[in-house]
Amino acid sequence: MKIQESAENYLEAILMIRKEKGQVRSIDVVNELGFSKPSVSVAMKQLEENGYIERDSAGYISLLPPGKQIAESIFDRHNTLIKILTHLGVSEKTARTDACKIEHHISDETFDVLKKHCRQIL
């Protein structure tokens, strides 16, 4: 399932916040990503309309199965790429920055090979 990079970032942020705090509201996404409240509001509405998230009456955000699948995939890519890059000698700060860029553009084939290789060496 291919969606825009910005949507992947929002979904990944929701997943990370949920893991950390147990619940997610739009303000948490604002604080995590550093975007404006109006920008996050528009994005949440689009994600909801496209069936990736749902919001309850109190404003709490939950990932729906398609959104959760994308978020977990991006999160896995992110963490795996950080491990590979730091193993190769890249500083953790740079590895985190670069992983954020690479995770959205790397092909499934290349990522799968890197992940397999990572399991063998780490």
Automatic annotation (TrEMBL):
Listed A to Z, the keywords are: DNA-binding, Transcription, Transcription regulation
Record family assignment: Belongs to the DtxR/MntR family.
Reply yes or no: does the keyword Transcription regulation apply. Answer: yes
> In its UniProt entry, what is this protein called?
Metal-dependent transcriptional regulator
Q: Domain HTH dtxR-type spans what residues? A: 1-64
Biological source species: Hominibacterium faecale
* Keyword DNA-binding attributed: yes
Q: Name one GO molecular function term.
A: protein dimerization activity
